[in-house]
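During the reporting period the student researcher (J.K.) took over the structure-prediction task from the postdoctoral fellow and processed the backlog of single-chain submissions. One of the processed entries is reproduced below for the supervisory committee.
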Amino acid sequence: MGSKNYAHLIKTEAKRLGFLSCGISKAAFLEEEAPRLEKWLNQNMNGEMQYMENHFDKRLDPTKLVDGAKSVISLLLNYYPEASQKEDTYKISKYAYGNDYHHVIKSKLRQLQNFISEEIGEVHGRAFVDSAPVLDKAWAAKSGLGWIGKHSNLLTQHTGSFYFIAELIVDLELEYDTPVTDHCGSCTACIDACPTEAIVEPYVVDGSKCISYFTIELKNEIPNEFHGKFEDWMFGCDICQDVCPWNRFSKPHAEPLFDPHPELLSMSKKDWEEITEEVFNNVFQKSAVKRTKFTGLKRNIGFLK
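J.K. obtained the following structure tokens:
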């Protein structure tokens, strides 16, 4: 059938499974990213995210993750919601409104893997959803799905940035896509809007200053110097994406599993301040918010008050 036809077949099936888009790049060492990642780690921009320091080589070389890897199939899945939380309440990132994306995407990736085996033959590979040392955004950009914006998120002209990125790394040679050009221009909306000044220069985010880091990753107390700077974000933060002009083109997702729990959108600040563990477990039963646990969310809310 040939690498071109195989690529077309895989992209068509990815679309059928509900993925926003699919791009393919050659599995090879990420030469440009290596010095950037090293510099970022040396400046301690990963904060207490020690896991970012592990498996440095694997992060940059997919052939160390999958024997004989030839292609990285990158996939985007939209999570932009139809409705958002009410005004004047404590906020959570839109990506966490519905079911935990890890499970939703893993299931779709398994289906895509099975399809490849059935239609093409014995193809070995692994599926990755933000759960292994893979530089998702770098691979997505390399495969032409978008460009890395000044806020370090992947951006596309037609749909902005509210989507998840996942990969299949396989030992099958395919036709490869080419990167797209950067369309941030002279815009600095994300840099200007970040209340903790985490975007220290265009395209560089100091993870240890990011609201998402403080409200999800940080296990210790949030430093007092950031008091009053979180703009009511209690889990994650969407500020740099919300202000990005390209997100004018975001369209609501069509994945029922990403729909929010009905209570979530209507809860007021008072409701959040008085939340019980029972309500937490009910509202976030299958959500990524469970990662911060009830005690973590209470800590974050207490910091915002």
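The committee noted the following: DSSP finds twelve helices and ten strands in the chain.
J.K. will present the remaining backlog at the next meeting.
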